[in-house]
Automatic annotation (TrEMBL):
The lineage of its organism: Archaea, Methanobacteriati, Methanobacteriota, Stenosarchaea group, Halobacteria. This is Transcription regulator AsnC/Lrp ligand binding domain-containing protein. Residues 1-53 form the Transcription regulator AsnC/Lrp ligand binding domain. It holds the Pfam family AsnC_trans_reg. It comes from the Archaea. InterPro entries: Dimeric_a/b-barrel (IPR011008), Tscrpt_reg_AsnC/Lrp_C (IPR019887). It comes from Halobacterium salinarum (strain ATCC 700922 / JCM 11081 / NRC-1).
Length: 55
C-alpha cells in the first residue's frame, strides 16, 4: 500500500500498527488512512498518531 513504510502485528488494544510516511500530513498521510486503510474489509477503527521527533 502506498505510503506504508512498516507494519507490525501487536498485542493489546490494537491488532496492527502501520507506519505511514509522506511529505504532507494532511494531503498524503491522513488521506491514505481514511481512503485506503480505513476501507479495508475488517478494519473497524483507526487511530492516527503523529511523530514529532525521532531518536
Amino acid at each position: 500500500m502506498e505510503g506504508v513504510t512498516d507494519a507490525r502485528v501487536v498485542a493489546g488494544n490494537y491488532d496492527v500498527i502501520a507506519e505511514v510516511g509522506g511529505e504532507d500530513v494532511v494531503d498524503h498521510i491522513l488521506q491514505n488512512v481514511s481512503t485506503e486503510i480505513g476501507t479495508i474489509t475488517g478494519v473497524t477503527d483507526t487511530k492516527t498518531y503523529i511523530t514529532l521527533a525521532t531518536a
